[in-house]
What we know:
The chain is an alpha+beta fold. About 35% of the residues lie in helices and about 25% in strands. The chain is built from 8 helices and 14 strands. Strands 1, 4, 5, 6, 7, 8, 9 and 14 form an 8-stranded mixed sheet that branches. It has a 4-stranded antiparallel sheet with strand order 11-12-10-13. The chain has a two-stranded antiparallel sheet with strand order 2-3. A hairpin with a 3-residue loop joins β2 and β3. The two termini are about 25 Å apart. The structure holds ligand DP6.
Amino acid sequence: MPNTSTVSFSSPSNIAFIKYWGKFGRQLPMNPSISMTLSNCVSKCSVEFELDSNHIGISSFEFEGVENQAFRARLEKFLVSICDIYPLANKLSLKIKSENTFPHSAGIASSASAMSAFCACLVEIEQRVVGGVENIDQRISMLSRLASGSACRSVFSHYAYWGESRLAQLKSSNEYALEFHDFHDSFKEVMDSILIVSSEEKSVSSSQGHILMNGHPFKDARIEQAHENFTSIMSAMKTGDWDHFGEVLENEALTLHALMMSSYPSFILLKPNSLLIIEKVRAYRELTSDPLYFTIDAGPNIHLIYPASHAKSIKDFINTELSPICDQGRVIHDSIGPGKIQLQ
Ligand code: DP6
């Protein structure tokens, strides 16, 4: 008689304010980063596990109801790579089902949500089979980091930071992310409206981009700047200084893309409409003084960050002026969220 049980978690995507760009060693970040956890862009992962069966590893992986060999192979490789720190990987047979609440074709990175949901399942299995797991969120975050760096921040509610900082009073680690609690009331309810400029496959993946930071001519300057921006944005979030927050946020987004453009070989992920949206957002801000700022991940899509208190006027602006220049008019309105959640 097979002795199987199932665990399920949901976990969201996150949007970085200070960007993780460049890594070393075993998936350790070149600089500290901080992100906002999202609410609607979520992956759900369900893992049926059996101990000491005839088949060790992943016996099936269904993505949105369809068997997916490419994802199965990626997760299998990940499990093999973590055997030294997750020894159960050598004893489990897993059947995995995963789905996203956001369309796969939207050009939104799904590895952060998918990997953190899967790692939350792995740690829950460990707790059930072996027991005594301490610092559970830290362990989920650490395993998630090994799967995909930015995934380590998705575990936590509101805001999470990852990477050793130079702030003496702040506990920080390269191994896992931590929740950032010390923010002003005006940062409690924050929106991220994601403007889909293009949903085409990216010409260069994030992983390739990280590698290009190794010999980058601006590497040292970038590390310095990231530390300064990290300190600065945390202080703006603490005091509720949205102007300063926005200045640093946009500087980080444009720096990330400037680093891509100045890599050898160089690459450009922004599209003409990404720039048009940036111009329109800045003009709107000039005109209204509304606290509306943009950030951009490793892709052409623009994330608009603003306090929920200004949602009405800003959404009107997005619908009338920005949505028409998006891919098929697509905008995903998301907001700050609670991190990973156990399902059932
Ligand atoms: C631009 O976490 O996708 O989104 O560690 O190779 O999986 P891997 O890279 P990934 O890189 C994300 C880069 C970024 C910035 C960020 O999220 O901090």
